[in-house]
Design brief:
- It is a single chain.
- This protein has 295 residues and is an alpha/beta fold.
- The protein has two domains: 3-162, Rossmann fold, CATH 3.40.50.720; 169-293, N-(1-d-carboxylethyl)-l-norvaline Dehydrogenase, domain 2, CATH 1.10.1040.10.
- The chain is 52% helix and 14% strand.
- The protein has 14 helices and nine strands.
- The protein has helices spanning 13-22, 34-42, 51-55, 68-76, 81-84, 99-111, 124-129, 141-154, 166-194, 199-206, 214-217, 241-257, 263-280, 288-293; strands spanning 3-7, 26-30, 46-47, 60-63, 90-93, 115-118, 121-122, 133-138, 155-162.
- Helix 2 links the parallel strand 2 and strand 3.
- Helix 9 packs across helix 13 and helix 12 (241-257) runs antiparallel to helix 13 (263-280).
- The longest helix has 29 residues, at 166-194.
- The radius of gyration is 20 Å and the shape is elongated.
- Bound molecules: nicotinamide-adenine-dinucleotide.
Length: 295
Amino acid sequence: MAAIGFIGLGNMGAPMAANLLKAGHQVLGFDIIGAARQRFAEKGGRLAGSAAEAAAFGEFVMTMLPAGAEVRAVYLGEEGVIAHARKGALLVDCSTIDVESARLVAGRAAERGFDMLDAPVSGGVGGAEGASLTFMVGGSDAAFARAEPALKVMGKTIVHCGPAGNGQAAKICNNLILGVSMIAVSEAFALAERLGLSAQTLFDVSSRSSGQCWSLTSYCPVPGPVPSSPANRDYKAGFTAAMMLKDLRLAEQAAVATASVSPLGAAAANIYQLFTGEGGAGLDFSAIYRFVRRE
Ligand code: NAD
């Protein structure tokens, strides 16, 4: 069993760290927010007094932070991970951040002799609690092999996507598909309604024909056809519209940086921007159906 410093004990980090504890790993956690620290302590976790102390704790340092700015600060600062991690520690950042920051931080880690993985996840808070996350991992083969057993404690599917930054690239590209497809499915259901076609009938047709996709068959944005979808619990998240907007903005940023053409991604980001501005930020991202339908 490993000794793991875990920094960022929020909605995702706390249950992920708790699963590591449950599996018998030693985990020393840290978060800048008192309530997050307390929640982890209530789950039986030990707390560090600083990020530096958590970083120095063991053979792994894991982080689950909001965005690129926090990851750069926590890794690159004087009191940060790279300055304080134990010799030979493997650094694993599970946050969803821009590819550029992921590659920058991994490069700085390598200069100081550390292996680093970017390992963003999909599966949300439910996946974090149930240890069923999907990890998309960027970094060397050796680092991946070393981290895989610990990642398996927190997730079901662990995919090595290539060198540093490729985990973030996979996450951003996947969520570009998801954001655009959720809006497309929502538009189709709103149109069907005005054409006098019931939601169930459209579902029965499209779930068995060429319109089939995850947004339709697993996460249908209209109440009824898929009982487990957030549409049936008043769009309680799940994965919030604010998170989807964040990921679509990351995709947009990556498209600009690589001179890629992504007009649907840009349009989807703008639609989510409008929706979050109208008070939808905390709802599940599939509530975009309400916006499209103009409820
Ligand atoms: P969160 O805001 O609940 O947790 C982030 C935590 O990091 C907070 O507790 C915050 O206090 C802490 N933090 C910030 N700066 C810090 C610092 N300098 N030192 C120590 N701790 C610091 O967010 P979350 O929902 O847990 O998401 C974390 C990451 O996972 C994000 O990048 C998000 O995009 C990604 N993600 C979230 C979900 C989801 O459904 N929530 C799903 C997939 C991926």
